[in-house]
Inverse folding.
């Protein structure tokens, strides 16, 4: 095809299984999850049972992946969720899901911009004496991410691969050292037993841990987004999906088990460690950093981890930049959004989608900066909470769409077309309920005098909190309305074509 800027096709055959897995696992930002989500899930949730919670959630998402991978063999589209829901539930539902997905991906990228800005601000001041506000560092990262995205996904895959391998090594080395030093504390029953996983009940500790676990997996579903750019979509995407979910599940469960082992393997041990090492709720990263220092001697590993948290954030931002721009590309090509968004540059990147994604990001960073809001306490916590609700809501729609669409295809087994998607939908619905009920904890948006960690604190939100938790559904309604309006003109034909 032509390489002019008016192209409306992504370059094909550029990505294999490894390249896509790099993007997806990087989007899950494993080290960010281990320094942010897992310690809080453990301390406020089911404590020693947290590793089992991550394993259980990973298994639910593996079941979801069965139908998702089967669908990818029938439908290859850079819109993925959008196209899948459109195929099964109709084009209007597809557009609605696309808008909800966009909210999810845009907000997680914004969240990580806030986190990396805050971490860089503190770390550069301590290590180099450079005192700059969080938003200055966020803008520097923004420039780099925009440039790399415009250079094409190949460059991004190489960068993400190096960063991801380094992250995995630090977590595996630290966890292995823990097991070697504290093997007598290993207790699989306390971490993976049924009673341990559901300790505290859905309204208490178990529900909190489940909410954080689901939030930690956001990004795995992006495998299908790169289908058009893969070497063989019908083989590459399913393999990449299973590998991505499997790697994320094993990594989180393995490292969380090492953390529980280091803390004594019991809820008393968790409390004891936090009292001696750090205030784990105010400084979650201090938990894994402290474990690394205690088990590897000195602070060399925690120092490396500190810098890799930054690279993990960068990798996540870059991965979501690609995912968002490809959603804009698909919607532009389908006539839902301006057709100019379906253009690609000489590198094969959806250039206008990248630019629009960057405009959204810099605008929000500017608003938060001008209003003296914090990068981590505000931008990160608020936006990441919205993301979790948005993506899981869409995954439920995808599961239902798979049942409807593949249920008619006699070449697909009942397990892939019906049983697995239904089981996944039930599990995801439960997870979404947990997320929304504990949204005040994820986003620090509980009203005054309400303790969000208690069963009574569930569903207690400020007005702004209710707006944020409902934002994905508001976006879905907006997408539905826009699709219905477009149905009355020639754009409807474009949408039908993109879903074909």
């Amino acid at each position: 095809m032509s390489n002019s800027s008016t192209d409306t096709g992504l370059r094909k055959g550029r990505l294999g299984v490894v390249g896509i897995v790099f993007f997806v696992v990087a989007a899950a930002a494993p080290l960010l999850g281990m320094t942010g989500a897992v310690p809080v899930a453990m301390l406020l949730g089911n404590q020693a049972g947290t590793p089992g919670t991550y394993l259980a959630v990973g298994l639910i998402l593996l079941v979801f992946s069965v139908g998702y991978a089967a669908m990818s063999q029938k439908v290859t589209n850079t819109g993925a969720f959008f196209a899948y829901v459109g195929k099964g539930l109709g084009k209007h539902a597809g557009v609605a899901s696309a808008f909800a997905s966009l909210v999810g991906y845009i907000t997680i990228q914004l969240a990580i911009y806030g986190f990396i800005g805050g971490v860089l601000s503190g770390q550069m001041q301590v290590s180099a004496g450079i005192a700059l506000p969080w938003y200055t560092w966020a803008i520097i990262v923004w420039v780099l991410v925009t440039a790399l995205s415009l250079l094409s996904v190949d460059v991004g895959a190489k960068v993400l691969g190096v960063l991801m391998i380094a992250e995995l090594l630090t977590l595996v080395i630290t966890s292995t050292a823990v097991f070697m030093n504290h093997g007598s504390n290993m207790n699989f029953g306390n971490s993976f037993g049924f009673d341990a996983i559901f300790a505290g009940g859905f309204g208490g500790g178990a529900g909190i841990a489940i909410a954080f676990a689901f939030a930690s997996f956001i990004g795995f579903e992006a495998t299908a987004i790169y289908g058009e750019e893969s070497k063989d979509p019908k083989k590459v995407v399913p393999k990449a999906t299973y590998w991505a979910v499997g790697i994320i599940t094993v990594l989180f469960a393995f490292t969380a088990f090492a953390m529980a082992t280091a803390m004594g393997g019991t809820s008393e041990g968790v409390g004891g460690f936090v009292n001696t090492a750090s205030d784990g709720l105010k400084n979650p990263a201090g938990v894994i950093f402290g474990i690394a220092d205690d088990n590897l001697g000195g602070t060399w590993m925690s120092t490396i981890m500190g810098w890799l948290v930054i690279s993990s954030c960068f990798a996540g931002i870059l991965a979501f930049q690609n995912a968002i721009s490809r959603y804009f590309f698909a919607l532009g090509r389908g006539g839902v959004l301006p057709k100019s968004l379906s253009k690609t540059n000489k590198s094969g990147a959806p250039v206008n989608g990248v630019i629009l994604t960057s405009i959204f990001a810099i605008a929000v960073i500017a608003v938060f900066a001008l209003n003296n809001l914090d990068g981590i306490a505000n931008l990160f916590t608020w936006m990441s909470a919205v993301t979790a609700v948005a993506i899981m809501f869409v995954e439920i729609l995808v599961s239902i769409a798979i049942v409807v669409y593949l249920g008619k295809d006699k070449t697909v087994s009942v397990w892939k077309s019906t049983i697995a998607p239904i089981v996944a939908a039930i599990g995801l619905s439960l997870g979404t309920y947990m997320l929304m009920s504990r949204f005040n904890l994820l986003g620090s948006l509980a009203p005054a005098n309400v303790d969000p960690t208690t069963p009574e604190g569930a569903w207690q939100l400020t007005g702004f909190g209710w707006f944020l938790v409902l934002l994905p559904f508001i976006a879905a309604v907006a997408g539905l309305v826009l699709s219905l309006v477009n149905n009355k003109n020639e754009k409807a034909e474009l949408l039908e074509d993109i879903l074909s």
